[in-house]
User: Fold this.
Amino acid sequence: MASGYVRPARPEDAGEIARIQLATWRVAYRRILPRHVLDNLDEGWLARRWSAAVQEPPSGAHRVLVAVEQAEQSYLVGFIAAGPADEEALAPGEPAEALGAGTVAVTDLLVEPRWGRRGHGSRLLAAAVDHWRTDGLTRALAWTFDGDEATRKFLTGTGWEPDGAARALDVDDMLVPQVRWHVAVPTEPPAAD
Assistant:
């Protein structure tokens, strides 16, 4: 019987986080992002960025958590990265103070497709919410690609809603629309059944 859990990322996880990101993007975003962009992503460069994010976060409220599938062996299967919202979370033309000090921005929430539908995304999000609550954060934001139906369904199913903000990323001279989602961070953990 397989089971899963979430833990803080460790420096030695950076390469696996990069591999998961690359594998997931190449499957999930193949109809959203230009193929040559996905084909040319450098796993080593991604691993160095994740190593820095894990070892030198900008604040104690910036975290990278990983999901682990535990069977006969343990496998890293997904991750979430989030921290206090900064200018990257803003919509075009939105003033810096619009988001408020209690807002957290999810920059990545990925589960490798072959490990999907096993509860890893929900476990990652629940663990992150526990940290957000401890850090006094009251609202969460996340940008998603407009055509990313799997993430839209997941966020909708966990209580998130579009907040009306939109933007387009310039990806190698192709504008890729994004939508911003938001949710209130619950002030107390859910009651045990």
Residues 3-184 form a domain with the Aminopeptidase fold (CATH 3.40.630.30).
